[in-house]
Amino acid sequence: MPTTQRRQLIQRSHIDSRIDDDPDDLVVGESDQIPSSYSCLLWLALAVVIVGCATVMVPEVPVSADGTQDPVLVQGRDVYAKRCANCHRHDGTGSRGPRVTGELMIETYPAIAAQVDIVANGKALMPAFADALTQAEIEAVTRFTREVL
Questions:
Q1: Prediction pTM value
Q2: Do 134 and 124 meet the contact criterion of CB atoms below 8 Å apart?
Q3: What mean pLDDT comes out for the span 71-88?
Q4: Per-residue pLDDT averaged across 56-79, rounded?
Q5: Domains in the chain, ordered, with CATH?
């Protein structure tokens, strides 16, 4: 049975299930299917929980004297949570990747451009992010590791 006819049969069918000689012709009644809107909502909720957990553990950007946060550091925090925390841990203390806390980064790379180059082009086991992140995101995450972690 062609795929189009099979789909039409499934959509019109109120039969709970029927199997012909061909196992590909299984017809499931509409009551047995999870509505796609519920399925989408479940996946969305799961994604929010996963992203939320990663973001919550990464240190917050400090508030300045005027009560605002530096938007570049906020962007850097978001990039760090999504791209870096998996290897360097949420607090920068290292895991699969080395420690990237502020004082170490400034000591190892006195010029921020050298650290930006490592993030963009990779080094040893660290992948390059030049194709995955914009230059502004790379600079933001580099500042975040130096100034917040």
A1: 0.62
A2: no
A3: 96
A4: 93
A5: 3-33 (no CATH), 61-147 (1.10.760.10)
